[in-house]
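Please produce the structure of this protein holding erythose-4-phosphate.
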Amino acid sequence: MKFFLDTANLDEIREAASLGVLDGVTTNPSLMAKEDGDDYPAVLKEICDIVGGPVSAEVVADDSDEMIRQGRTFARLSEHIVVKIPMTPEGMKAVKTLSADDIKTNVTLCFSANQGLVAAKAGATYISPFIGRLDDAGMDGMQVVADLVDIYERYAFTTQVLAASIRHPMHVVEAARLGADVSTMPYKIFQQLFKHPLTDIGIELFNRDWAKVMERRKANVRR
Ligand code: E4P
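Below is the modeled complex.
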């Protein structure tokens, strides 16, 4: 499974990339709005340079012509750009056109298996089912991931399932168990993947015992 960071914060992206297990980044207009500045293309370009892997850049438009125009502009920024397009009929027209141009796409705001099936038929590179927002609405977000993994395998679609709107580390585990290709997550959750209290306790214990060995060695040298 690939790990993507769901942020537009350059410090978080740099820090996560330095750990060596980051594969890509997803951004959206809300994540951009949280950061300083308004030069979206410059930020995207910098993210691409840091990550060297797929970076989703979301279009903001209602009609397919404008989505295609924005998508082509993003794609010129870097070979790593993936154009993120909302799951609407106009959006699917744009996906069809951009994929015919070999521009990668990520269909966002997917809340059902049928939407995911349509996106795959349109030629999407990634489909982003929003697990957390479905769970928040009292539905089973992970079921959409399970259905899409199953449907894509059955019909040999190459569209990758990108589990999005992840709220906690167990979402990552469940998405991995179901065979999702990617999980995109906030930095806080990415950090939590590395952590376990027993690891910390174990390190403390090993350090304490090793200090005893060092003390003993010093005592033996003095003798
Ligand atoms: C990523 O591609 C999505 O835009 C993001 O995961 C949405 O997450 P949210 O539901 O926490 O806003």
